[in-house]
Specification:
Elements: H1 2-22, E1 25-29, E2 32-35, H2 36-46, H3 54-76, H4 83-97, H5 104-118, E3 120-130, H6 137-155, H7 160-165, H8 175-178, E4 181-185, H9 192-200, E5 210-212, E6 215-226, E7 230-239, H10 246-264, H11 269-276, E8 292-293, H12 302-309, E9 321-323, E10 326-336, H13 341-354, H14 362-372, E11 376-377, H15 379-382, H16 384-389, E12 412-413, H17 423-432, H18 442-469, H19 471-500, H20 502-511, E13 517-518, E14 521-529, H21 532-542, H22 549-556, E15 564-572, E16 587-588, E17 592-594, E18 597-607, E19 610-611, H23 614-640, E20 643-645, H24 647-650
Antiparallel strand pairs: 1-2, 1-20, 3-4, 3-6, 5-6, 7-8, 7-10, 9-10, 11-12, 13-19, 14-15, 14-18, 16-18, 17-18
Helix pairs in contact: 3-19, 4-19, 5-13, 14-18, 18-19, 19-23, 20-23
Length: 655
């Protein structure tokens, strides 16, 4: 007997060693293992160009250990039980589960449909009657009747745009200016129910009312055309704000026309953008904007898009174009026709999985789950109670089962299990989901609600099994779990603490004051001039002490807005290239050239190097204090938690 036990123990030990060899442990935090496959997955995700030499792996392990220590501390302190964080993780879990809760065949059909639509564009106008997604039946009926009334006016001959613009017409604020016209769009550029209706309504006709998360709509399709493809452009913008005066708008138009004339005369695009564009986000990239057009979620205002797509050759630029943002000159960088289905398939798959259209595939998926899990319906008799006990209070959210529903029988079962698919679970669903339910016979209401609940319950059951079925899903959930609690504990222990602990911050500043010094600075007004003659004119004007910078601007820019820019600041000389090595003194300095521009600098004061006051260094000191708090916290965590690294396994990662 003992011999048999010994043999069994040997066999068991052998199995353990086999499993360990298959996925050995790289490190342990408080005894919890991090396997080779888990570590490698994270390492590759954070290192697109991975290196497997000893130095690179040691460096990453050090960083990874700090991360795991913070997570371990957050778990030890119960951060993963905080209600708001649990709710946040549940939200991510449901989002991450969506791609796993669809029928693959139906899903591929949706991918193909999306591609067919990307090859085309539809132009449509709409009227919106806004409605909250959880509106009660009364408000829902009012909104529905209102959209029907607007549609009836159009059917009697009134102009669609006029109805959209009128009082109590469309609730879309843009309708006041565009009459509901949304311009051309393609797949993924509208919510899916809206896209579906726009692509299936015949040209010239008005759709039946339909609902999205924004409310009720009617759509009139006005045009269809083949896709214009995807385009990349650069622009040079002279901005005019919404509240710009007529004078400012006129100056902007004058300035853009001058810039366009210079481009036509041979000035380089890059120099004009650098000198004059007001779009700070694109100016350092030569004015380049994200690609837009078919297959992208990026859209531009129609007048901008039309001008961009009208350009024929790479390098061509447009006439000045006016939008609500100001004036633009647009340069063509690249145009591409719609790529092949094969080259877009993966991208489209990802978009479909995240899009509302993925929900359409769930009915087929639920049918497969029923078959796989041995679904058995038990509701023939057990739904009767609901048919008999649902009353008018249900439709106003006041129906209750308290003290009435005494049994808790199964309504269906999966995998031989009846819980949680019982009467009380269905009753809870009914109580929560009463909004928008029409008053009908009890049997009809119960039947419809049961189908909705059954589908939701089966999907929820499948969702609960995903972590066991799919390692990549389990890894993602773990990643989100760790990220959420890590962010929260960092807020408490480092980021917010540094901001709130004013006494500690001030003490840290005083102990490290030598780190917070001003370099040599100039309190100055800088006149950036277009050419040498203008610089001389500015210098001559500044000899008169009574003349201020506004007067200089008004005089010099009288004929052209491009002549002069003025900057007033306390400039760090070493960090300002056009001031470095210029030996500037107090007063008006002699004009000089730097990088093709001419500068006249009026120095009010030369500020010698010195220590910063606390108020001047507070931002940088706060950042340094946060780093100090994190460093000392990490040291304490290393003492509070055990860390073991198996370097033999670690150094075999790339082999």
């Amino acid at each position: 007997m003992m011999k048999k036990i010994f043999v069994l123990l040997l066999m068991f030990t052998g199995l353990q060693n086999t499993f360990a060899q298959k996925d050995p442990v790289v490190m342990e935090i408080d005894g919890k293992p991090v396997t080779k496959s888990e570590f490698l997955q994270i390492y590759l995700k954070n290192n697109p160009d991975p290196k497997f030499d000893q130095a690179s792996l040691d460096e990453y392990v050090e960083m990874f250990t700090k991360f795991k220590l913070k997570v371990a501390e957050a778990e030890a302190l119960g951060y993963d039980t905080i209600p708001k964080l649990k709710k946040e993780l549940d939200g991510y879990r449901k989002q991450l589960a969506l791609p796993y809760l669809i029928d693959s065949v139906e899903n591929q059909a949706m991918v193909s449909q999306a591609y067919d639509r990307i090859k085309n564009e539809v132009r449509a106008s709409h009227i919106l009657v806004r409605l909250d997604p959880n509106a009660n039946p009364k408000d829902t009926l009012i909104a529905y009747n209102r959209i029907l009334g607007l549609k009836a006016r159009i059917e009697k001959g009134e102009d669609f745009a006029s109805v959209a613009k009128m009082k109590n017409g469309s609730d879309d604020p843009s309708a006041a200016s565009n009459g509901g016209d949304l311009g051309f769009f393609t797949a993924f550029q509208m919510v899916y129910p809206f896209e579906e209706k726009a692509f299936t309504t015949p040209i010239g006709q008005v759709s039946e009312p339909f609902r999205t998360r924004f409310g009720y709509h009617i759509v009139k399709v006005t045009e269809q055309r083949q896709s214009r493809g995807t385009i990349r452009v650069a622009h040079l913008m002279i901005s005019t704000g919404k509240d710009a005066t007529p004078e400012a708008k006129a100056n902007a138009e004058k300035k853009i026309n001058e810039i366009h004339a210079k481009l036509m005369a041979g000035e380089t695009w890059e120099s004009m953008v650098t000198l004059h564009s007001d779009d700070a986000n694109s100016v350092k990239k030569g004015g380049e904007l994200p690609a837009f057009g078919s297959g992208t979620t990026q859209r531009m205002v129609p007048v901008f898009e039309d001008a961009a797509f009208a350009l024929k050759n790479v390098g061509d630029f447009s006439q000045p174009v006016k939008t609500d943002f100001g004036y633009h000159i647009i340069k063509l960088i690249e145009w591409r026709e719609v790529p092949s289905f094969e080259s877009m398939k993966k991208e489209l798959q990802t978009k479909v999985n995240k899009d509302e259209r993925s929900k359409k595939t769930q009915d087929a998926f639920v049918a497969k789950l029923k078959q796989n899990y041995g679904y058995k319906f038990k509701g023939d008799k057990n739904l009767k109670w609901f048919n008999e006990n649902l009353d008018s209070s249900y439709f106003v959210g006041k129906w209750s089962t308290d003290g009435k529903l005494k049994s808790n029988k199964a309504l269906f079962q999966l995998d031989g299990q009846t819980a949680p698919f019982t009467q009380k679970e269905f009753a809870a669903y009914l109580k929560k989901n009463y909004r928008g339910i029409k008053k009908e016979e009890n049997e009809l209401v119960v039947s419809k609600q049961y189908r909705n609940w059954e589908k939701a319950a089966i999907l929820q059951y499948e969702e609960s099994q995903l972590a066991n079925k799919y390692p990549e899903y389990r890894a993602l959930i773990k990643e989100y779990h760790d990220g959420i609690i890590l962010y929260e504990i960092m807020q408490d222990r480092v980021w917010n603490k540094a901001v709130k602990d004013t006494a500690g911050l001030r003490s840290f500043f005083q102990s490290n004051q030598s780190n917070y010094r001003w370099a040599k600075r100039l309190d100055a007004t800088v006149y950036e001039c277009l050419n040498r003659d203008i610089a001389k004119k500015v210098s001559d004007m500044l000899k008169n002490d009574t003349i201020n910078s506004k007067h200089v601007l008004d005089v010099v820019n009288k004929d052209s807005e491009l002549n002069l820019k003025v900057k007033m600041n306390k400039f760090d000389i070493a960090q300002t290239p056009y001031l470095t090595n210029q030996n500037l003194l107090k007063g008006v300095n002699q004009a000089y050239e730097f990088d093709g521009k001419f500068y006249v600098v009026k120095v009010n004061a030369v500020l010698e190097p010195g220590f910063k006051e606390f108020s001047e260094a507070k931002g940088l000191a706060t950042s340094d204090y946060q780093n100090y708090l994190e460093k000392t916290w990490i040291e304490s965590l290393k003492k509070a938690h055990s860390v073991k690294v198996n370097k033999d396994v670690l150094y075999q990662l790339g082999k």
